[in-house]
Design brief:
134 residues, mainly beta, 8-stranded mixed β-sheet, 37% strand
Amino acid sequence: MQKLQFESAWDRTIADKDRRWIEHMFNEHPINKENGVHFTFLREAINHKGELLVTVLIHNCDEYQLTFKNTTISYVNDVKREVIGTFDVPYEIPRKTTIPWTFIFSTSSLSETAPHYKLTRYSGGVKPKLQEII
């Protein structure tokens, strides 16, 4: 069974309102997958530096720990703007565990490499999903 876990920095700093919202999204929109890596879109924002922030739930549905090291991710939003970036998640995601994470697409993370994962924001649905490239 999938469990929700907050990385220690998130756990210390997340606002109660945001924690409740993430817990709600995890509980109300469960991932019913036996294996693989899956994503649930949470939000998109632009920070004060003009960087694109894409917050998702990363669902590690596999029986082994997941590592994001030099992982290329493509993101396409509702207006078909695509950005590609290379990212690290600074710790291993345990088996059968979901974590919230924000990918920051900054000029230093941008890439032209073929993505490992493609995240697509779908409009009009209660639960937009992000899709894995196979």
